[in-house]
Amino acid sequence: MGQHFQKILIVGGIVIGLLSGLAMMVCSLLKESIPNVLAPEERQFAFDYVIVGAGTGGSTLTSLLAKHSNGSVLLIEAGSAFGLLSRIPLLTTFQQKGINDWSFLSVPQRHSARGLIEQRQCLPRGKGLGGSANLNYMLHFDGHGPDFDAWHQLHNLSDWSWAHMGPFMAAATAKPCDMYEIPRGYSKLTEALDDAQSEFTHKPWVFRRSRYNIKNGLRHSVVQQFLQPVLKHSNLRLLPEALVKRIQLSSSPTLRASSVLVGLKDADNRELEFSIEVRRELILCAGAYQTPQLLQASGIGNSTTLAKLRIPLQLHSPLVGRNLHDHLNLPLFVSMGVVAPSLNQRTLLSPMSVFNFLSSGTGPFGNFGVLGHVASHEEPSPFGITFFGAGAIDEAALMSISNFKAAAFRALFPRHHNASQEGFVLISSCLQPKSRGSVGLLNKHMRRNPLIDPNYLSHEDDVACTIAAIRSAVKLVTSSSLAQLRPFIHWPKLQECSNFGPFERDFREQRPSDEYLECLMRHIGLSSHHPGGSCALGTVLDSQLRLLGVPNIRVVDASVLPRPISGNPNTVIAAIAMRAASWMLKSELQEGSRRQ
Ligand SMILES: Cc1cc2nc3c(=O)[nH]c(=O)nc-3n(C[C@H](O)[C@H](O)[C@H](O)COP(=O)(O)OP(=O)(O)OC[C@H]3O[C@@H](n4cnc5c(N)ncnc54)[C@H](O)[C@@H]3O)c2cc1C
């Protein structure tokens, strides 16, 4: 019997592998071509606005400037267009470690990642039009007002309360008809979670079924929402597959960005370099890892650090690359004794799943599998619990994108002898982690990866907060609303944690010790891929996102976030880009009327 299921599992794995390989081939053939590409003879040109990076921030900003500005706009992006694969929601993880992923690894972590190879986290980042918005899991989050009110207080950023940001969040949010919300009847798990709301009314918990940036079964990212409609505008040029390597400052009459050095690889992989002049503003949208990388490689950063790297100083800006923050996820596998259905190899190979996707964009292929989320914003430990409805999973793919050592992976996910194993992954995280890391350089070459140190769990409060999250997650799983699913929490039996548990009573009473839970998070906690803060508002930037000391450089990406976002950050970053555009367009107008 066991062998029979083993065979099903292996055959299932091979079929999924073949299908994904085939999809990838077709998709790379179907890569969208990019219009309005800057021609070689135009490369001496100067542009009013030069935007570096076509991710969430860059695509949103470009769209508004191309639509409303009188100036010329150049969007420079290191990658090319994404293929069709990026649009099929369930297959999105197959893009990781591919050509549209920068595939960064963290530096070895001191306080976490002990169950990962070399104690390094995989840190995927999108490369190409859409950036990480085309690689992400498409989950939408409305924003949490107090996050912005806290910024307001943090550095006296009076422009940044929720009263200021709310309207931009609403504008950046896709229309309901351009989103997909997991319906209540999607599975028994979604029904049970809906019911649990009334069981936990005494708790300050907010339940939500997932809402995705998915339209008609396909990813609907900032590319479709913002960038595509302006791609052919005459004031816009695009420069794909081009890496910005250096920012040149000039000091007359005041310090300003005058040009950027761009590198392109030719057919023989030789680097061609040329400069683009910046007439009005240079806007950095290269993301939380690469914006501080580019600034530091250009000599804008901490003078002592740059001197050690022998990078000539252009501006001492001591906090560039500091304050990096990210959520850390603790996954736990919960098996279910009933058919929900959840994502497993049988569901995926079922002709009905394929039919539902092709006919209406629904079913397991039409979303990423995250069914819902519970958030508690109560201080001092605001936390989130995410329900990823997956049973017998594609182990090889998951292991590869998470960098798990085999033993840690096996402790987390028990070997399934059943291709139709039902279950879900319960993900607990702290919404306002206090640990802070950094982005540094090995040297000044932009083709070398930056040194990324998220420094997860370096602050003790994050441990307490994650424990609070796990204990609440257990309460939910063992509630009477979920009892009919016959859930069973697989407390990982990690050898390194065996002094602390799990003991028999942990399975019986579901109250493992704090020491065991801490040991778990320090071994198997994974990045949630929400980095931010590395060129923060109020310390590196002024309240309108301009680099302190060089007012014609603006940063418009996740680097600006002074504190973590209490949820998924993509829409917040698009909203911030809209705000930046409003300031830029306003100053353009004011300048125009002064000239008249
Ligand atoms: C796997 C994954 C899953 C996620 N899931 C979700 C989710 O479900 N919901 C959510 O809200 N958020 C999610 N996120 C986070 C969200 O996608 C990011 O926070 C957001 O896209 C970051 O936007 P950005 O503008 O800061 O940077 P990015 O979107 O990363 O854009 C940076 C762009 O700059 C380009 N670039 C970098 N350096 C240079 C250079 N020197 N020259 C030229 N171009 C350059 C890059 O190629 C890239 O296109 C996820 C992220 C990942 C990676």
UniProtKB/TrEMBL annotation:
Question: One GO molecular function term?
Answer: flavin adenine dinucleotide binding
Note the superkingdom of the native organism.
Answer: Eukaryota
Pfam hit, one: GMC_oxred_N
**Keywords for this entry?**
FAD, Flavoprotein, Membrane, Transmembrane, Transmembrane helix
User: Which co-factors does it depend on?
Assistant: FAD
Task: Locate the transmembrane regions by residue number.
Answer: 7-26
| Keyword hit for Membrane | yes
Gene3D superfamilies the UniProt entry points to: FAD/NAD(P)-binding domain, Glucose Oxidase, domain 3
Which protein is depicted?
Neither inactivation nor afterpotential protein G
Species in which this protein is naturally found? Drosophila madeirensis
